[in-house]
Amino acid sequence: MSLIAIEGLRKSYGEHEVLKGIDLEVAKGEVVAVIGKSGSGKSTLLRCVNGLEAINGGSITVDGARLAGDEAHLRALRLKVGMIFQQFNLFPHKTAGQNVMLAQQVVKKTGKAAAEAMARRMLDRVGLGEKFGAYPDQLSGGQQQRVAIARALAMEPMALLCDEITSALDPELVGEVLQVVRGLAAEGMTLMMVTHEMAFARDVCSRVVFMHQGRVHEAGPPGEVFANPRTPELQSFLGRVA
Amino acid sequence: MTQFTLLDILRNLVFATQWTVILSLVSFIGGGLLGLGLLVLRIGGGRIFAPVVRVYVELFQGTPLLMQLFLAFFGLGLFGIDVPPWLAAAVALILWTAAFLTEIWRGCVEAVPKGQWEASASLGMSYVEQMRHVVLPQALKIAIPPTVGFSVQVVKGTALTSIIGFTELSKAGTVLSNATFQPFTVYGLVALIYFALCFPLSQAARHLERKMNVAHRH
Amino acid sequence: MTYEFDFAWLAGYWPVFARGVAMTIRLILVGGVLGIALGIFCAWGRALGPRWLRPLVALYVELIRNTPFLIQLFFIFFGLPAAGFRLNEVEAASLAMVINLGAYSAEIIRAGIEATPRGQFEAGASLALSPLQTFRHVVLIPALQKIWPALASQVVIVMLGSAVVSQIAVEDLTFAANFAQSRTFRAFEAYFLSTAIYLALAILLRFLLLRLGDLLFPHKRGAR
């Protein structure tokens, strides 16, 4: 059974329909790259899966539980699915370690010692074990994003959603973040990522989904999608990016 | 004892309100003019006058308006004049208003981007010309919302003049409350009248500020 | 001007002034702590609270901000007993200050909350924090930090405004000056002295509040 199942998903902002019926399934351990032009709805799709946007039609099911709009369901969903943002969104008044500890203590009611041990483990995992006491504004963009990944991992989610997580980074900092994601993929973490890093998508992802005008326009294994794009839209998109 | 109806109370309060309004206008206009003078000294007054104005502002912003009223009332008396409450009230409120407006307007002048000074200087304008043609017109625009907003503080500030014996809305409230033994009704009405005076000013200030923010974004 | 200043009488009155200063400090301590707490609650209510709460908070804030503190004080002390709610003068003064500061600080703190980047709310939500938990742990502290200087100024303003509580016979610093001048007939000197003390208190209070801000918000500002 698929971990994330999206059926007939629709989302509008006022008159403007951004998602026009999305069907997509993500199996456990799969790494899915969502690509497409800006405005194609790919970020909105990810935000819907995390319940950050209310949906107008269709359904989203995560681990067998259907997403509903009420508080309890949303929180249950978010315990299963973590999210990493383009702008990192670290909490500026908390150290890297406290950023990772906060939700464990507040949401899961984990004790301070256990939360701290988990935070240290997760920061080690993203290569920032020595930055436990550093505040976000003392860290580079790449380091902040790695802390954000550690923060999401500490909640032990079943899947991670990555929304253009390297787009706000200086080019020389992109590699360290992708390295961490590559490691997660290798360990079998289920990942759904909106990305512009085509080379990374080709190397690491098990499937590529090309979105165009609010629909899944083409999808398949990266070898196929990148080597033989069937539709002119994907051909032109790949031509522009490559 | 005469019986006061609600209408009687209201009529007396509204009558007293005219003194609140007049004192507010005098304080605001007088304070504005004095504040403008102080502003010139604060910005262009060099090493002697600018610090003097700064201390003036600090003193008036750092002490209670009530104390300023007392000092005006008893201080003017030291000159051997018999000081009527309205005079002490007007003097103190004008000095107090001037201090706050000077500070508000200084902020507005400083909010004009440095590039405007540099651009006008590069066109060969003198300091006065820069002020007159480039900086002040822009500062004036930013200054309107907070200035209107401060007028609310002036209206509320006039309430304190009742304590030195000036008969305006608050004083009338005290007198009527004592005469009618209906403090709840009387002070409730007094509050509502102040609200009727101040709320439109607050709303206008907010509206102007919002309009300006929108204009700035485009 | 032939008037000669005379502060010699002061020797006999310094305990009166000292008690007055103590009362003024006590009032601003209570008013400051509870007023800011009320302000935080109202700011939350107006910016993020349930829909029914928002207009109520707005009404309270506008009513207080558009009426003089003196009248609020009189209404509480003289008016409320008529409605069966009796307070002694110190309680009435404290309550008036809490209510007054609560309204002003609500607006100041709300500005801080509304300046919070949306991403902070979303990050909290995505970590399964409830809206209230997100407010408490993620939004509140940076919001307070942003507006702390303005909040400190407002507390000083309320302290200075508390001079009028002498009108309901609270024995504060102004009361001490009134008392001294009525006995010595040295009105100008008495008010000059109390004004100087208020100025010193204002400077000290502002300094302490800003230091407190440094302690509460030790980290530098920067990343979003």
From TrEMBL, chain A:
Designated name of the protein: Amino acid ABC transporter ATP-binding protein
CDD domains: ABC_HisP_GlnQ (cd03262)
Classification via PROSITE patterns: ABC_TRANSPORTER_1 (PS00211), ABC_TRANSPORTER_2 (PS50893)
Keywords: Amino-acid transport, ATP-binding, Cell membrane, Membrane, Nucleotide-binding, Transport
Family: Belongs to the ABC transporter superfamily.
Translocase keyword on record: no
Keyword field contains Nucleotide-binding: yes
Domain named ABC transporter: residues: 4-238
Topological type in the membrane: Peripheral membrane protein
Compartments where found: Cell membrane
GO MF assignments: ABC-type amino acid transporter activity; ATP binding; ATP hydrolysis activity
From TrEMBL, chain B:
GO BP annotations, alphabetical order: amino acid transport
Localization annotation: Cell inner membrane; Cell membrane
Classification via InterPro entries: AA_ABC_transptr_permease_3TM, ArtM/GltK/GlnP/TcyL/YhdX-like, MetI-like, MetI-like_sf
Swiss-Prot/TrEMBL keywords: Cell membrane, Membrane, Transmembrane, Transmembrane helix, Transport
Listed GO MF terms: transmembrane transporter activity
Annotated protein name in UniProt: Amino acid ABC transporter permease
One cellular-component annotation, GO: ATP-binding cassette (ABC) transporter complex
Sequence intervals crossing the membrane: 20-43, 55-80, 86-105, 184-202
Domain ABC transmembrane type-1: 17-205
Membrane topology, as annotated: Multi-pass membrane protein
Chief location bin: membrane
Gene source species: Mangrovicoccus algicola
Family: Belongs to the binding-protein-dependent transport system permease family. HisMQ subfamily.
From TrEMBL, chain C:
UniProt feature coiled coil, ranges: none
GO molecular function: transmembrane transporter activity
Transmembrane segments: 27-49, 147-170, 190-210
Membrane topology category: Multi-pass membrane protein
Source superkingdom: Bacteria
One cellular component term from this protein's GO annotations in UniProt: ATP-binding cassette (ABC) transporter complex
Subcellular location: Cell inner membrane; Cell membrane
GO biological process, one term: amino acid transport
One family name in Pfam for this protein: BPD_transp_1
UniProtKB keywords: Cell membrane, Membrane, Transmembrane, Transmembrane helix, Transport
Record SUPFAM superfamilies: MetI-like
Keyword Cell membrane tagged: yes
Main location as per UniProt: membrane
Keyword Cell membrane: yes
Annotated ranges, domain ABC transmembrane type-1: 21-209
InterPro entries: AA_ABC_transptr_permease_3TM, ArtM/GltK/GlnP/TcyL/YhdX-like, MetI-like, MetI-like_sf
NCBIfam families membership: HEQRo_perm_3TM (TIGR01726)
UniProt similarity note: Belongs to the binding-protein-dependent transport system permease family. HisMQ subfamily.
PANTHER family: ABC TRANSPORTER PERMEASE PROTEIN, MEMBRANE COMPONENT OF AMINO ACID ABC TRANSPORTER
Name this protein carries in UniProt: Amino acid ABC transporter permease
